[in-house]
């Protein structure tokens, strides 16, 4: 079920709101997700609004260079990333750990073997 959340980085420079369904949350063992310890959930880009901090984000791309991994230049937290589905639909991958008022340990994410992809 889709729910409304606020989120952002550790230092508060980046803040956003998103309508997202956390039932599809994942963990991944790829070379990026595993070291970061992120849990991700995905939403259509139109369900996401970046309220502040756009000018304080820096981007990192790896592998196929298709996903915009964005993180705060001040505290280094990656709150979200921008990407596309295979059909071209724009999505946002939200780091569930950056959502306010939510304990991610209460979720049961699906594990994805990103190293094998």
UniProtKB/TrEMBL annotation:
SUPFAM superfamilies: Mss4-like. One of its GO terms (molecular function) is carbon-sulfur lyase activity. InterPro entries: CENP-V-like, CENP-V/GFA, Mss4-like_sf. It comes from the Bacteria. Keywords: Metal-binding, Zinc. Residues 5-117 form the CENP-V/GFA domain. The keyword Metal-binding applies. The keyword Metal-binding applies. Belongs to the Gfa family. This is Aldehyde-activating protein. It comes from Ahrensia marina.
């Amino acid at each position: 079920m889709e729910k409304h959340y606020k989120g952002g980085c550790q230092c508060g420079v980046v803040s956003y709101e998103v309508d997202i369904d956390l039932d599809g949350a994942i963990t991944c063992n790829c070379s990026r997700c595993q070291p970061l310890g992120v849990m991700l959930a995905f939403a259509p880009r139109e369900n996401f609004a970046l309220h502040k901090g756009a000018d304080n984000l820096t981007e990192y791309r790896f592998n196929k260079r298709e996903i915009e991994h964005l993180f705060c230049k001040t505290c280094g937290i990656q709150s979200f990333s921008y990407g596309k589905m295979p059909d071209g639909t724009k999505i946002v991958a939200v780091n569930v750990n950056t959502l306010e008022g939510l304990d991610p340990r209460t979720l049961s994410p699906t594990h994805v073997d990103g190293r094998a992809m």
